[in-house]
Amino acid sequence: MSTAWRIGVDSRRCIGTSICAGTAPEHFRLVGGLSEPLADVVAPAEVILDAADSCPVEAITVRDATDDRLIAPEE
């Protein structure tokens, strides 16, 4: 089990729906109309996966901070 996740938001894909910020406000915010993670590396939390899976354009990625394995969104 991973002990840390790396959160990324592709600003070229993000359309600013704010679903992520509404789902996980402790991990995402909108800046200039686009999503931004509050921290690059975080402790694993189910709400982060929910936010990534809810993004309509799959702009959010969650990776294992140790081996860079993609955790979300599911391929």
Automatic annotation (TrEMBL):
<dbReference type="GO" id="GO:0051538">
    <property type="term" value="F:3 iron, 4 sulfur cluster binding"/>
</dbReference>
<keyword id="KW-0408">Iron</keyword>
<keyword id="KW-0411">Iron-sulfur</keyword>
<keyword id="KW-0479">Metal-binding</keyword>
<dbReference type="InterPro" id="IPR001080">
    <property type="entry name" value="3Fe4S_ferredoxin"/>
</dbReference>
<keyword id="KW-0813">Transport</keyword>
<keyword id="KW-0003">3Fe-4S</keyword>
<dbReference type="GO" id="GO:0009055">
    <property type="term" value="F:electron transfer activity"/>
</dbReference>
<protein>
    <recommendedName>
        <fullName>Ferredoxin</fullName>
    </recommendedName>
</protein>
<keyword id="KW-0249">Electron transport</keyword>
<dbReference type="Pfam" id="PF13370">
    <property type="entry name" value="Fer4_13"/>
</dbReference>
<dbReference type="InterPro" id="IPR051269">
    <property type="entry name" value="Fe-S_cluster_ET"/>
</dbReference>
<dbReference type="GO" id="GO:0005506">
    <property type="term" value="F:iron ion binding"/>
</dbReference>
<comment type="function">
    <text>Ferredoxins are iron-sulfur proteins that transfer electrons in a wide variety of metabolic reactions.</text>
</comment>
